[in-house]
Amino acid sequence: MRGLVLDLFAGPGGWSHALDVLGVRDVGLEWDDWACRTRAAARLRTIRTDVALYPVHPFVGRTRGVLASPPCQAWSMAGKRLGLLDQPLVHTAVADLAAGRDTRDKLLASCRDARSLLAAEPMRYLHALNAVGEPEWVVMEEVPDVLPLWRQYAAILRAWGFSVWTGILNAADYGVPQTRKRAILLASRTRTAEPPPPTHARYPEPESLFGPGREQWVSMAQALGWGATDRPVPTVCAGGGPGGGPEPFPSGSRKTLTDARDRGTWTPRSDNAVRPSRRAARRGAVESCTATAPAPACSCETHRWSWSLRSNNQAHATVRPMSEPAGTLFFGHRANECTWIAEPPAAQRAEALSAPVPDPIRISAREAGLLQTFPADYPWAGNKGAQFSQIGNAVPPLLAGHLLAPHLGVSLDSDDFTLAA
Question: What secondary structure letter does DSSP report for 43?
């Protein structure tokens, strides 16, 4: 049956979860053991294999769409970026594969990072599929530095009869609570390839004669269900708990900010109900979220600490207050590089210099997953390092949904990606 969606480098299921929400299932090719276990727990179809070694012929004559998000470690600012030095070799590999010449072994011997050449692998599949007029559409995603390579792909695909668009998209413009910028390629044989219209902006834009308007970027607080814009964001009183009690997070604690909510040290939103999604309705499931009782009021004259997220442990890491989207989340060899940090409001900063500052609190996998727009109960497999690696490398499902919906001929309802629970 010619309706298969093939997901190369499928990871834990960013593309797959979006397709599932939209009513379509894919087949994911993935090598990482823990990512495959996550996919199995999420009931996603998976072939555990090396994309560079798996044959294409099982998919020829059956494939409607191809997705590809090659590993970004060789290109990412979080790594050594040896992929940039290998870029000429990758361009050569793409050109050769598009012409039916497999020179990968020879080129791989010259690569400074063996992962660099994986960005050429989608062309091997596309060349074989193109021989029978497939696929109908292609969507690819990578870090911004890969855009020149996507432009090379675009030139080849146009010669094969595709309409193609390439460019940089910011996930925050599509409702993701994270200013994650990625190089995107969209190609289609049946429609004009163009990016979906943004639904959000840094500042809200009212509807006008020129367009439907755009909502304000989704903040971390909104995505996590940690307070509305007209209420204080999570806070901890100086000296520790409510009323100046003992510190809820002693030095060396591995508690998360979600635990702070459960300990009553923050102010939750009172309208925390989550509407059932169409996906849940299809499966006969019921989603609910009970609002947590308000935290005890501070009776002492203390400061209220505002929480921000430090996106990694590098010197120039992005630090954002919870009232804004997160910076791009990425995780290296350490299991938990993103941390919540506390600081007093500007008006009280001078007075707070003498007050004990709450220790940084490590972000949890659940929180990081929510900021990537995975469901709160997504079944991440593995230890913390494995979970965070999967989350940081995944495509945000909500962004994926916006990119995929036009190719599938369906409409996307953001309520289908309800997050906090």
Answer: T
Please state, as a whole number, how many other Cβ atoms lie within 10 Å of the Cβ of residue 76. 21
pTM of the model: 0.82
Cα–Cα distances in angstroms (integers) from residue 148 to residues 61, 84, 136, 152, 183, in the given order: 30, 11, 23, 7, 9
Top pLDDT among 255 and 225 is at: 225
DSSP string over 145-206: GGHHHHHHHHHHHHHTT-EEEEEEEEGGGGT-SB--EEEEEEEESSS---PPPP-EESS-B-
Query: Tokens for 376?
Result: 């709160």
**Could you tell me the two tokens for 356?**
């004990």
Alpha-carbon span 34 to 60, nearest angstrom: 28
Q: What sections of 175-334 are H helices per DSSP?
A: 220-224, 257-262, 278-282
Confidence of residue 85 (pLDDT cuts 50, 70, 90): confident
Give 335-394 pLDDT, tens digit per residue: 457 899 987 766 555 555 566 778 888 899 999 999 999 999 999 999 988 999 999 999
Residue ranges per structural domain of the chain:
4-204+383-417, 219-324+330-371
Alpha-carbon distance of 378 to 370, in angstroms, equals: 9
Of the two residues 411 and 160, the one the predictor is more confident about is 160
Which of 395, 385, 376 lies closest to 10, judged by CA? Answer: 395
Return the CATH fold of 4-204+383-417: Rossmann fold (3.40.50)
Predicted pLDDT at 347: 58
Structure tokens at 167: 């460019």
Which residues sit opposite 216 in a β-bridge?
201
Q: What pLDDT was estimated at residue 72?
A: 67
Distance CA 36, CA 50 (A): 12
For residue 164, what are the contacts with CB-CB under 8 A and spacing of at least 6? Answer: 153, 154, 157, 158, 185, 186, 187, 193
Q: Which residues contact 207 (CB under 8 A, 6 or more apart)?
A: 213
Q: What is the bridge-based pairing of β-strands 4-8 and 27-30?
A: parallel
In this prediction, residues 52-66 reach a mean pLDDT of 97
Tokens for 286? 């019921």
